[in-house]
Design the sequence.
């Protein structure tokens, strides 16, 4: 076999491999199902607590039970006297009710509490955006706004949809863009590259 034929064969093999990578990338993005995020501008479901969320708990007339707490990696909040109280997967109101039940179980006669989220876990925006990274979650943040916060699209971006990984999902889903659906705490948003 001549040197020219070997070189031609090598170039052909590289072209086949590149085509397979491009097609594989398209297939992954194309096979993801479309997300059903409910009506535009409305978050479904209500945000739930997860590890990394920081809370301010106020137990009225009980300063020793009040303070700032974080949902731990195990999904619990370590509270004075009460020990660990499950928070992960609960809405803020459900966590408040659970905390009141624990306090009423031998600690306080009629517990009254307020709980505020100081900050939810961040949102991640990456892929074909100008400044990919971790961004603080803010109530009312839409997918369109999240792309803007990350500096907007690059010239290679597929602007028709983004890929979303949300807590509890095994595979990403596609969100049609521009979208005014609301981002949830911990969302991982990837802007794919267009292939033409």
Sequence:
């Amino acid at each position: 076999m001549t040197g020219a034929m070997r070189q031609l064969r090598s170039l052909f093999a590289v072209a086949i491999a590149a085509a397979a990578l491009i097609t594989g990338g398209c297939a992954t993005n194309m096979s993801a199902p479309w997300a059903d995020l409910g009506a535009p501008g409305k978050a479904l479901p209500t945000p739930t607590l997860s590890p990394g969320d920081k809370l301010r708990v106020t137990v009225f007339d009980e300063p020793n039970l009040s303070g700032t707490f974080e949902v731990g990696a195990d999904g619990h909040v370590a509270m004075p006297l009460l020990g660990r109280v499950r928070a992960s997967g609960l809405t803020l109101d459900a966590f408040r009710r659970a905390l009141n039940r624990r306090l009423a179980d031998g600690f306080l006669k009629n517990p009254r509490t307020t709980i505020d989220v100081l900050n939810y876990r961040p949102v991640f925006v990456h892929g074909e955006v100008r400044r990919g990274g971790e961004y603080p979650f803010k109530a009312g943040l839409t997918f369109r706004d999240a792309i803007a916060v990350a500096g907007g699209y690059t010239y290679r971006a597929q602007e028709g949809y983004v890929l979303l990984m949300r807590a509890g999902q095994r595979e990403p889903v596609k969100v049609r863009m521009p979208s005014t659906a609301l981002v949830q705490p911990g969302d991982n948003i990837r802007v794919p590259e267009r292939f033409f």
Strands lie at 54-59, 67-70, 76-79, 83-86, 113-119, 123-127, 133-135, 161-165, 173-176, 188-191. Residues 11-28 have pLDDT under 50 and may be disordered. The longest helix spans residues 3-31. Residues 19 and 25 are 10 Å apart (CA to CA).
